[in-house]
Request: fold
Amino acid sequence: MATNESLERAIAEVTASGKPFETETIHINGVDFIGFVNAPTNLRELYRSGLRHDVDFYVYDDERYSFNDAWNISARVANKLLALGINPGDRVGVSLRNYPEWIFAFMGITSMGGVAVAMNAWWSAEEMEYGIEDSGLKLLFVDQERLERVGPLAKNLGIELVTVRCQHDFFRTWQAFIEDSSDTMPANEISPADNATLLYTSGSTAHPKGVLSTHRSICNALLGWEAAGAVGYQLTVNENPALLQRVNSGETPTPTNPPSTILSVPLFHVTGLVVQFLSSFRHGRKLVGMYKWDVERALQLIEAERITSFNGVPTMSYELVKSASLGKYDVSSLQSAGGGGAAMAPEQAKEIDKKIAKGASGTGWGMTETQGLATSIGGPAFTLRPKSCGRALPPLVRVKAVDEEGNELPPFETGELCIWGIQNFSGYWNNPDATRETLVDGWVHTGDVGHLDEDGYVFITDRMKDIVIRGGENIGCQEVEAALYEHPSVAEASVFGIPDERLGETVAAVVCLEPNAELNGDALREFASERLAQFKVPSRIWIGHERLPRTASEKIFKRQIREDILKKLELETNE
Reply:
């Protein structure tokens, strides 16, 4: 097991002057952060770096696009936005499935200095209306499903729509949007401190919050994963010099397949956007898109495209190994498999490691507010600490647990987990109070509760935020409760998470009706689905006329309600 001293030595060697991951101090809003000297200045320069790779970049069904194709098409988008009078700093939205146009639109928006609003494509019409109004979108790219939700609202919202792969007669199509535009990329200045993305994340409020991030944060996060891998390799070499000799002599095998991964999660999710999509430019990694998650299709793609790494939410990797079709496909190209965004059960990790990951299973922890970058764990360390989400990724990230006064706690003492680093977001859009509460002296207060062990490995044991994490997606309980309260028959509602074998958690609700009101769970779910994305609608609802339990301060006693439901579910299971 590596000591802290040996880890610091490896970090110093990897980040030394003249090295690819040389670091420098960068002063931002009164805080000195660690940043990379060689990080791209902005996302446009990141995309430019992809041009040196003469290989497939994005594959979608029978469509194949090179890095050069993506550059040229996104330049057309960027120039058209400027021609329409959209200025750097203006918000432009994307609400599509993982079509190639999602990628080209995002690249174009951020290449001309716009702020790309990656809207949750699962949102209901009401949620989309909120996101459009809150972000102040100037233009929105939509596909057929999103057009059906937002098209009738476009005139009242004063927003221009560009439709992708749609059948209609009213709005400008994607082809018409780009066909008369230049494919020479704009050259206007984009500062590292300029905002690049606005992603919405659910929390403990009635509406999702917009997470605003700069070009600098994103570009440094991308190098952060690479540098952490380089530190891990250097650490191994320092502790096993014979390995370096074998590498230099050509004894160790080189990968037979070029790097590739499946875009397994939506691009509006930080994992899809940053971890899978944006990280592909630096090393020419092929990205293979899917219309939606389907385990059989994923296995087909792993074989056909010789996929080398798989990363999604933990349930996806587990579904691969549990699939009855696993033996039908050649998945030997996989060099690693894992997931983040939700806890991975130790027994799941063992099966993934045994059947597809070959000693390279792993998991991690991060947030939209940290570009998904925080901790990681894999290989032997994961075997030894299967309940940990890993150590802070060196050299950018620090993690600590704090008490209620904000004092750092020693190892094994439980408190709120906080994440520090240049990768952190710049603030919540139009919400300075929430920004001050969450972002303190460069530290993101995560709302997750846990501890660090003596070697810095992080263990999450609870959460302060009133959220459910369903298959890696955060769902704000207050947001769901607000939707249920809109029903005239609902007097009281309490929403919480219950365990789910496949998704980790799923949404549940206990509801008290108004006197003499009659309502069943199916009718209430249908009502909620008109106001909420389907994944937020409670899968189980218990309805009655009894007043919900209260605390001494007369607040609804959610913890007690959840405990009672869990006991009831346990009895049902044992019957």
Summary: The mean pLDDT is 91. The chain has 19 helices and 29 strands. The longest strand covers residues 490-500. Residues 29 and 141 are 34 Å apart (CA to CA).
